[in-house]
Design goal:
CATH topology of the largest domain: D-amino Acid Aminotransferase, Chain A, domain 1
CATH superfamily of the largest domain: ATP-grasp fold, B domain
Number of strands: 12
Largest sheet: 5 strands, antiparallel
Strand order of the largest sheet: 10-9-8-11-12
Shape: globular
Number of helices: 10
Number of domains: 3
Distance between the termini: 11 Å
CATH architecture of the largest domain: 2-Layer Sandwich
C-alpha cells in the first residue's frame, strides 16, 4: 500500500465502453471534484477500447495512485485491475481476482455457499436451453453472468414471452443465470475494509431494484437504517463482511440481499459500487459520520495493487 498525501497525482479512470458508461461518467466526475477540493493533482482519463492508448494515457499522467471509477465490463471484472497490476500502479478497491470472482455471479455464489452464507438457487444455461426447458416454476429471474447495475435482468412472470429475450441475448453464445425468485424486501450493506456500515432497505415501484430505479432521482426510496429486528440487522452486517472477506475484496464493496420473512439471501456483491448523487454507499457512509470527501480519501489511502 502506497502512502497517498494531499498534492499526490491521481488518475481517475472513468467512462469506458461498457453498458454502464453513463453511470461511470457521473461517478468519475463526482470523485474528481472531491479530489480537487482536497488539493489532489487530478487527471481524468475516459478509458478507450484501445488498451495500449489507455496505458499510454496513464503513463503520461504519472499517477501516484489510480482511482478506478469504471463500472461494468473491463472496469470491474478484473481486466483493468490486471493491467494496473502489470503497470505496478496502486488503484482503489478490489484486485483482479476478487473483481473477477465477484463479477461472475455463479462463481461468487458458490464461494459464498461454501463458507455457509445464504444464497439463492441458480442454474447456468443458454437461451437455447431456456427455450427448451425452463429451470424453475414461474416466477424466476434471468440475468447475465457478468453485468452490473441490474443490466439485462428479467423477472419471468406467467405472461413473459421467453422468445423476447433474444433481443438481448444470443441464442447459443451467451451463458445466462437463471435464479429462483425470492419475494420480500430489498436490502443492501456497504463494507469498507473490515467494517460493515449499515443496512438500507430499497423500495421501488418496479419488481426489483433495476437500472432506472438505481439512477433516476425519483427511481427509488432508501430507508436508512432499515426497520428490522436487531438480530436480523446485525446478521446482515455480519454476512456482508463475511462475503467481502470470502473472496478477498479490499476497499469498498456492497452486498445486495432479498429478505424473505426472516431469511436473508445474498443476490450479489458489487466491488465497484456507484458514487453518484443517488448511490447507496455514500449515503451509508454519511449515516455513520463519514463525509463524501472522507470516503474518497479513505479509498485513496487504501489503494493497492497485486504482485
Amino acid at each position: 500500500m502506497k502512502t497517498v498525501k494531499v498534492g499526490s497525482r491521481v488518475t481517475v479512470l472513468y467512462g469506458g465502453f461498457s453498458s454502464e458508461r453513463e453511470i461511470s461518467l457521473i461517478t468519475g466526475t463526482q470523485v474528481s471534484s472531491a479530489l480537487r477540493a482536497m488539493d489532489y493533482d487530478v487527471t481524468m482519463v475516459d478509458v478507450p477500447r484501445d488498451i495500449k492508448k489507455m496505458v499510454d494515457l496513464i503513463h503520461e499522467s504519472k499517477p501516484d495512485v489510480v482511482f478506478n471509477a469504471l463500472h461494468g465490463k473491463f472496469g470491474e471484472d478484473g481486466s483493468v485491475q490486471g493491467v494496473l497490476d502489470m503497470m505496478r500502479v496502486p488503484y482503489t478497491n478490489s484486485g483482479r481476482i476478487a473483481s473477477s470472482i465477484a463479477m461472475h455471479k455463479i462463481f461468487s455464489k458458490k464461494i459464498f455457499s461454501s463458507v455457509g452464507l445464504p444464497v439463492v438457487q441458480d442454474h447456468l444455461l443458454t437461451l437455447n436451453d431456456l427455450q427448451r426447458n425452463e429451470p424453475f416454476s414461474r416466477p424466476y429471474v434471468i440475468k447475465p453472468l457478468d453485468e452490473g447495475s441490474s443490466v439485462g435482468v428479467f423477472i419471468i412472470n406467467d405472461d413473459f414471452d421467453i422468445s423476447s429475450l433474444s433481443d438481448f441475448f444470443s441464442v447459443d453464445t451467451n451463458y445466462l443465470m437463471a435464479e429462483e425468485y425470492i419475494p420480500g424486501r430489498e436490502l443492501t450493506v456497504a463494507v469498507l475494509g473490515d467494517k460493515s456500515l449499515a443496512v438500507t432497505e430499497i423500495q421501488t415501484r418496479s419488481d426489483f431494484y433495476n437500472y432506472s430505479a438505481k439512477y433516476s432521482p425519483d427511481g427509488s426510496s432508501h430507508i436508512l437504517p432499515a426497520k428490522l429486528n436487531k438480530d436480523i440487522y446485525n446478521d446482515l452486517l455480519d454476512i456482508s463482511l463475511s462475503a467481502h472477506q470470502s473472496i478477498n475484496c479490499r476497499g469498498v464493496s456492497r452486498v445486495d440481499f432479498r429478505l424473505d420473512g426472516n431469511d436473508p439471501y445474498i443476490l450479489e456483491i458489487n466491488t465497484q459500487p456507484g458514487l453518484t448523487p443517488t448511490s447507496l454507499v455514500p449515503e451509508q457512509a454519511a449515516y455513520v459520520g463519514i463525509s463524501f470527501n472522507d470516503l474518497i480519501s479513505w479509498m485513496m489511502e487504501n489503494a493497492a495493487c497485486d504482485s
